[in-house]
Every structure is written in structure tokens, then in C-alpha cells.
Amino acid sequence: MNYPSPEFENKICAPSELAARIEHLTRPLVFTNGCFDILHRGHVTYLAQARALGKKLIIAVNTDASVKRLGKGDERPINNQNDRMAVLAALECVDIVTWFDEDTPLNTILMCKPDILVKGGDWKINEIVGAKEVASWGGKVHTIPFLHERSTTSTISKIRNS
To answer: In this protein, which residues make up the domain named Cytidyltransferase-like (predicted)?
Structure first.
């Protein structure tokens, strides 16, 4: 029997198609980015809270190469880019998942022109890539405090030590 591809796969969008996809989204658009290597409760809480700030949520995922350049360790990412994007796309609060290969998501932010830019509570607003640009077109920038102290690095450490 042939089973259809899951509907959530349609949320994954190549960067070259992003502008056309965004035209059809209801605003305000919320944008966030990250590695999202091993998805955990902290991630999904943060993403649901980010989505609640607007009508649609766009996530830009670091490519495998850009994760490696972040210096998180030779073994990172644990999950490859396609797997990370598929897991994120399966979340109800997520509307579009794309990727970026640069060291920062600035070009993607400039192309999306989000109304709201969001990062986790470990970021200061003045350190968030794209914050000045989003503010310049009247958008807002938020940092969402962590409710669940989780991290991929601590999960990997826990696995290694067990």
C-alpha cells in the first residue's frame, strides 16, 4: 500500500520559494531561528509562545554546515537538517520552516520582513541579529524567558553519562 506524504512536509520551504509563500500568510508574522537539534520541552514551549505573539510562525533552521561553524562540537548536529526541519514542521504552532546556510539569519530576516522577531531568554535584545532592522520597519523584538531549563547540550551530556 502506498501511504501519502504527511501534510506537515508541505510546511518546509526552500529559501528561494520563501518570498512567494510569505505573500499568502496572514500577518503579523513571527520569525525565529536556531539549530533545534534535539527537540525538547523547552523548544516546543518557546515556539508555542512565539506563535502566540502573531498569526503565523516562520522558523529558519541552521544548515548542518552552519551548526558546525557555531562551534557546538564535532558531533553536532546530532540530527541532520532535513530531519530537524520535518520535526519542527510537524508542530501545530509552526507555519513555515526554511533554512539558512550563512553564519546569521540576517538575509532571511530581511527577505521575510517579520512583524515580530523572537529569540529565547538567553539573548539580550541588542544582541539579536536583525533586531535593529525589524525595529526600523516598525516591528517588535521579543526575548521569551525559559520556562523549562532544557538544552540539547545537557541532553547529550546526560546520555553520555548514563
So the answer is: 31-134
What band does 149 get if pLDDT is binned at 50, 70 and 90?
low
Pick the CATH number of 7-161 from 3.40.50.300, 3.40.630.30, 3.40.50.620, 2.40.50.140: 3.40.50.620
Which phi and psi angles does 81 have, rounded to 5°?
-55, -50
3-class secondary structure per residue, 38-92: CCCHHHHHHHHHHHCCCCEEEEEEECHHHHHHCCCCCCCCCCCHHHHHHHHHCCC
Q: How far does CA 48 lie from the centroid of its chain?
A: 12
Which DSSP string corresponds to 3-32? Answer: PPPPGGGGGB--GGGHHHHHTTSPSSEEEE
Among 44, 16, 31, 28, CA closest to 148: 44
What cell numbers appear for 54 in the block?
Answer: 502573531
Question: Could you state, in order of their start, the residue ranges of all structural domains in the chain?
Answer: 7-161
Query: What are 141's strand-pairing partners?
Result: 117
The pLDDT of 104-116, averaged and rounded, is 98
